[in-house]
């Protein structure tokens, strides 16, 4: 018997234009770090490290490890310092991304019906690597 429904947050429960969201993400992160690196170089490095992370097939590596293994080779910057900048980004600027995404009323009604029927609902998404982007209260 089915008693739980699992939904993907981005694109299913929220109408997200993935390309636009990724552009906002990369531009915001690049802006955050642009005083440390050339913005064009940084954008390309973040993008390449993200692709390397996505394509990582080593089950012993976390997303964070795969990303920084690639990224640090390109930027030649102390890992501890750059990770602190990323964490600061996720605590601050990241929260502003997607603020213009409007809820989908049909999804809301569907979830209410499932809940009324006593079924459990779970929304899932994949965080790239920051603990802080998972702790949103909004």
TrEMBL record:
Against InterPro entries, the record matches this protein to: HAD-like_sf, HAD_sf
**UniProt xrefs under SUPFAM superfamilies:** HAD-like
| Listed name of the protein | Uncharacterized protein
């Amino acid at each position: 018997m089915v008693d739980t429904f699992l939904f993907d947050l981005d694109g299913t429960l929220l109408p997200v234009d993935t390309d636009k969201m990724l552009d906002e993400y990369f531009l915001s992160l690049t802006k955050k770090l642009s005083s440390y690196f050339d913005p064009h170089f940084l954008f390309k490095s973040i993008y390449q490290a993200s692709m390397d992370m996505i394509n990582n097939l080593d089950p012993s590596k976390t997303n964070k490890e795969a990303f920084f293994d690639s990224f640090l080779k390109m930027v030649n910057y102390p890992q501890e310092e750059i990770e602190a900048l990323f964490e600061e980004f996720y605590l601050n600027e990241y929260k502003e991304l997607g603020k213009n995404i409007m809820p989908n009323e049909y999804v809301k009604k569907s979830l209410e019906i499932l809940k009324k029927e006593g079924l459990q609902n779970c929304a899932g998404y994949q965080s790239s690597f920051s603990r802080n982007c998972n702790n949103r209260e909004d």
